[in-house]
Design brief:
The protein has three helices and 13 strands, in the order ββαββαβαββββββββ. The protein is of the alpha/beta class.
């Protein structure tokens, strides 16, 4: 069964060119991300935010959810929750890394929230892509190159890494020690299994697409 995908566009940094979007996927602009979509010639299906970043005219005929500036959620969190409410099981966040560090960290928290709810979440930046995994297996194809880093998030995580230069077997990663930084793809099929806890996993943006996520 296919997973419904939503693409969320924020106002952070982007890589070169337009991202590849699945046909029929939901596209959501989070406030200033609408300017990026306008530049790319992509029409969103939904616009959310307090519009303290985007000052232009809103496109006619597009559903818009306007929230006050003084609120408890970031614009990207509003977009994530809107995607979940509309049945998305895979959520890809663009423009959510770079710029202000506090907003980048807030978006990492959103990845953890998605993983703990059983959804797939990816934060695609200019130089790297990040996901959070909770009690699942992330499978990489032999074509992937460069480094992959695995960090415990919100407490310890128990992790197995196979097919990488530095294997781990049922290892305990702590959230105050970067033991899992800068492992390397070797040209073999690779897997990162998160048995317990939550892990943030990141790799170079030069690798196309996303890895396969399986149940443990």
């Amino acid at each position: 069964m296919s997973v419904k995908t939503a693409y969320l566009f924020g106002s952070g940094e982007y890589g070169e060119g337009a991202p590849a979007l699945e046909p029929g996927a939901l596209v959501i602009a989070a406030d200033g991300g609408l300017a990026r979509l306008n530049a790319l010639g992509i029409r969103p299906g939904l616009i959310v935010g307090d519009f303290d970043s985007y000052r232009g005219a809103l496109p006619a005929g597009v559903e818009t959810v306007r929230r006050p500036v003084m609120k408890d959620e970031t614009d990207m969190e509003l977009a994530v929750r809107a995607a979940l409410e509309r049945g998305a099981g895979r959520i890809v966040l663009y423009g959510g890394l770079g710029g202000r560090l506090d907003h980048s960290f807030a978006n990492l928290q959103l990845l953890a929230m998605l993983a703990r709810r059983g959804a797939e979440g990816y934060l695609a930046g200019r130089a790297e892509t990040v996901t959070a995994v909770c009690r699942r297996v992330l499978c990489f194809s032999p074509a992937w190159r460069g480094t992959v880093s695995v960090f415990a998030y919100g407490g310890a995580a128990r992790v197995t890494e196979t097919g990488l230069l530095y294997p781990l077997s049922n290892a305990r990663l702590e959230d105050d020690r970067p033991l899992g930084v800068s492992n390397e793809f070797t040209g073999a099929p690779a897997r990162v299994t998160v048995h317990e806890g939550t892990a943030l996993i990141m790799w170079g943006a030069e690798n196309p697409g996303f890895p396969q996520l399986l149940e443990v």
